[in-house]
Design brief:
Layout lengths: L1 H25 L11 H4 E2 L2 E2 L3 H38 L3 H54 L5 H29 L2 H15 L6 E6 L7 H20 L5 E9 L2 E8 L12 H11 L3 E5 L6 E8 L3
Parallel strand pairs: 3-4
Antiparallel strand pairs: 1-2, 4-5, 5-7, 6-7
Length: 307
Amino acid sequence: MSVVTSLVLGLVVVLCAGNAVAAAVTVPLWWALPAGTPAGGFAFGVPLSGWGTALTLGTAQTAVFAALTYWLVPLLARLHARLCVALLSPSATERLAQRVETLTETRADAMNAHGAELRRIERDLHDGTQARLVAIAMRLGVARELLSEDPRMVAELLEEAHEGAEEAMAELRAVLRTIYPPILADRGLTGALAALATRPAIDTSLDIGDLGTIPAAVEAVAYFTIAEALTNAAKHSQASRTAVRVARDGDRLSVEVTDNGVGGADETLGTGIAGIRHRVLALDGTLRLHSPAGGPTTIALSMPCGS
């Protein structure tokens, strides 16, 4: 079908352009051609019997076909492009199959990331908070045994248990912040990003639009993405300035972080950007990294945030 339409439309273009060129070249030479020759003897079906007729009708024929070519060729090109898109683009069934395949892959990545996150949390709690709680329980047990025999030792044990409890609570809060930062619940995404922008050692500008109500999962991914990008800019890119833009367009949340560093970021060389991509894809979003050598580096993502 594409070959047929290309042939037909091409012949129309050749007809228009060819007549314009033929008239421009041959009509002025009508007197040198044999009588009855179509190219030299007629213009618009009128016999050419003199210079006045030849120049007038030849010029008119050239102008008309040149105008048709100028107007018709772009129109036919757009028509041909639309036909090619309609013929070559995947069908609704194929697009649905591709969509299902993509969602299956991202779901598998999300499940793997979720499993790794659970193992990390379990390891942090087991090696940190749980160990401190066990030590506190042991100190309290010894203090109970020595309560009537050595009050001074009991006081020291209680003081150590108190300090251990505070350290355990601090570690527990640190683990919880990696799951869902409390500042998001307290201030929302706008307030959390305003606080985040004051932490890096480099100047950070914020441009945040009217975001409305955003699902907690989307807020967390946006927050962690910006935090990771700012950290990378401060540690690796030698940047002196970063810019963060967050906007909402309908049911899509877009985030863009740009720094003026040396560029050359490669997500295959580390887990930070790859981890961000897995988070974003798990929410049916998209992520784009542009970091040419010499900079600047831009991380842009878009996620659905409708209800």
